[in-house]
Amino acid sequence: MTDVLEVTLRSVSVLAAFLVLPLLVGQAEHKVMAHMQGRLGPMYAGGFHGWAQLVADGVKFVQKEDITPAAADRRVFRFAPAVALVPYLVAMAVIPLSPDLVAADAPASALFVLATTAVGILGTLMAGWASANKYSLLGAMRSAAQLLSYELPLVLAVASVCLAAGSLSLGGIAQAWSPWWLIWQLPGALVFLVAAVAELQRPPFDMPVADAEIVFGAYTEYTGLRFAFFLLAEYAGIVVMSLLFAVLYLGGWQGPFSDQLGWLWTLLKGLVIAVVIIWLRVAWPRLREDQLQHLAWIVLVPLALAQLALTGVWVVVSA
Amino acid sequence: MSHAATWAFRVRVAAAAATSRHVPAQVARLPRVSPYVVVAAVVLVGLLLFVAAMGARALLAPKAPTRAKLTTYESGVDPVGQGWAQTQIRYFVYAFLYVIFAVDAVYLFPWALVIRSTGLGAASLVEIGVFIGILLIGLAHAARRGLLRWF
Known about the structure:
- Chain A: Belongs to the complex I subunit 1 family.
- Chain A has one domain (2-318).
- Chain A is 72% helix and 0% strand.
- Chain A contains twelve helices and no strands.
- Chain B has two domains: 1-83, no CATH class; 87-151.
- The radius of gyration of chain B is 26 Å and the shape is flat.
- The termini of chain B are far apart.
- Classes of the chains: A mainly alpha, B mainly alpha.
- The interface between A and B is large, with 89 and 81 residues.
């Protein structure tokens, strides 16, 4: 009985974090982007600086008509948003905020997170193919190409961190972290950040949804709540990747008073990375498809392999 | 029963690992419930969220389909031909390269756990170096032959 209670408590906590953190990042994006562009952003909903804007958006989305095009592959089309969304929820479950504050302390959680986040892209592919729309199909093709190219540097960068820590668990990695990693693992950290933004299909890597070229890519035919779920998946993805960066490269909960405030450090470091990801959207124009592939295979993969070699040699020499 | 047995085994393994020199002691502090039960519960919660949200939408949203509304969107004109068009798959080569390197990456993760052991460290470093070196030659060859160009 207590086991059931514990599992329920843990999974509901993950759900609560999943429903709150992406909205925080979304609101941060509204305001940070606005101020970077000399605007105010949302100011009315909820009264204080438009804090309830995204809640209002959710209420609006749920009241909108849900349209499935007549030509679409109906069942795949309707299920795709769940496939895009749930993997990020699962990934969030294994990311530790502090040594004790983790919903599911899986032994090889670094590997597990990589595996689950890679499933999310299937939702985009399903959406693009099932829509039976030319824009959607083009968007899905671009998504597939992008995933193929950027998954690899991401995995190699994480492998290097695992090597440096001698552990496959996110908790173990953050425990093994020392400030020296900020220099030693810097190339890998940059590769990870770039590849993560590309995996999330955020600008400057938003070729798959390039609104000036292919309407909205794989999500063109979606309306109402199903469309909102794809958006939620994107912001949940930012949360997952930012927290992952904080745990892998910034030591997670390590900082002053980490015994009591460890979870706060992880969240703050993650928030800083999330703001950087938002900043990239404001600062950089979209890459062209061939530039995208070039960057991945000619720059990121060799850089990640060089980082791997550096880590391996250093670990063996210093052992 | 078998699940409980495997979990007990994992706890023993983790406890044994924690006493060894290189694995942080934090690994040994396992929760009472298997983390994978929690993961399964989270998957279930996620699906429930989707179903509940769709239920709420079914209750709240209007439903008035018309022919025009259900037509495939093609920038406001009537759709031409089929949506499932054949396209030239330019990333075929990238897919091949990805599969090769992804398989390679799978071997890197177990390596992270043995690189610090005294007998294997240097030898495994050289072996992985040879392994990745061969793949790199392949990548360089592909790049030289122009396979990494999109056009």
